[in-house]
Design goal:
With 210 residues, the protein is mainly alpha-helical. It has a domain at 17-147: Serine Threonine Protein Phosphatase 5, Tetratricopeptide repeat (Alpha Horseshoe). It is 70% helix and 0% strand. The longest helix is centred in the last third of the chain and has 41 residues, at 160-200. The termini are far apart. It comes from Teladorsagia circumcincta (Brown stomach worm). InterPro entries: ENTH_VHS, STAM, UIM_dom, VHS_dom. Residues 192-210 have a biased composition (Polar residues).
Length: 210
């Protein structure tokens, strides 16, 4: 089904990078394989035609049905943006791919949309400042800001009940520590009192000193 969907979007176009990008965004990966991703970046930098082909392969994975694959593809995209120079960034800033980014930033699952928006914000605050050819990325960011989109992760916050329970646990721990310190302070005093009694009432066992 995914293959048919991608054929519908991209036709029969294949890319020399399909195999590499498929591996670094494989469904079974639990997290990014940065060694493989950087290897992809090296391959992109080795051929002037590579940026266009690499982005085509990444775009296919951005349209995968599994959000986890899409998140991995975003990591590859971001790494290539940072490591593959102006040629790759200009491909990303093309009109056709900007539409892809906009769709991911606004009409995806929460995690995909948040990651896309934060990635765009990072680009605008760094590379886009010194490269006027990336104006479409900057414009996309401005539009997202104007539309009121968030550029941070909206992880669920702890409930007030959870905070109250945590506060009670911390208070109980503090009391236990204080009690332990009090008992520790008493122990040396008892020992000194015992020594004092022994001095006052010496034992009569054994031989006496002459």
């Amino acid at each position: 089904m995914t293959a048919l969907l991608q054929m519908g979007i991209f036709g029969d176009t294949s890319s020399p990078f399909d195999e590499y990008i498929d591996k670094v965004t494989a469904e079974h990966l639990t997290t990014e394989n940065w060694a493989m991703i950087l290897d992809v970046c090296d391959k992109v930098n080795s051929d002037p035609r590579a940026p266009k082909n690499a982005l085509l392969s990444i775009r296919k994975r951005l349209n995968h049905r599994d959000p986890h694959v899409v998140l991995l593809a975003l990591s590859v995209l971001d790494s290539c943006w940072s490591n593959c120079g102006p040629a790759f960034r200009k491909e990303v800033s093309s009109a056709s791919f900007i539409n892809e980014l906009q769709a991911k930033a606004t009409h995806s699952t929460r995690l995909v949309a948040e990651k896309t928006r934060m990635m765009i914000q990072k680009w605008v605050e760094n590379e886009c400042k010194s490269d006027a050819s990336l104006s479409l990325v900057a414009s996309l960011y401005k539009n997202l800001v104007a539309d009121g989109y968030s550029f941070s992760s909206n992880e669920p916050k702890k409930s007030s009940l959870t905070r109250d329970i945590q506060a009670e646990e911390e208070d109980a721990l503090a009391k236990a520590i204080a009690l332990s310190l009090q008992e520790a302070d008493k122990a040396p005093k008892t020992s000194k009192l015992y020594q004092s009694l022994n001095t006052t009432y010496p034992s009569t066992n054994g031989t006496s000193n002459k």
